[in-house]
Fold this protein.
Amino acid sequence: MAHKVTTSVAFRAPAFCSQDLSMWFSILECNLRPIRSLLASLNAVLPPDILLQVSDVIVKAVTSTTPYEDLKKAVLARLQNTIVVRLQELLTREELGNERPSDLFRRMKTLLADKYDSFDREVFKQLFYQRLPPATQRSLFTVKDILAVDELANLADEFMGILPLA
């Protein structure tokens, strides 16, 4: 006689991460179902100041047919930077610092979020290229127009690994 074994794994919701709200919601959604569990977990892990900002949506959750989606939409709309703010950050604040060029590329791509796919690739590549150190720019000059930006970032990683520090 075969015995059925049931295994359950406890899931602890991740700490609220306002730096990347889409990623935080994705982790939550991948690990919790059904919707009422999602909503309960969301209410349990959101910091009090965030709950206050979406209290109007929480109050309506009892009668809503899509309470989790309503709350998620409100949190994203009220806390996530607009595309204009993200573009300003991309154009003015993003720098290489002590990171690898591929890390900078991923951070710049994350800033654009869902707009990355529709953003002009050549403009994005130029913005990325301008943030590289001058020695790396010179090393990549002949191939920058041929390679895709992710390939350029990987090659820049390699060059920065062998070029002397300026």
Summary: The first helix runs from residue 21 to 31. Residues 5-9 have pLDDT under 50 and may be disordered. Residues 83-162 form one domain.
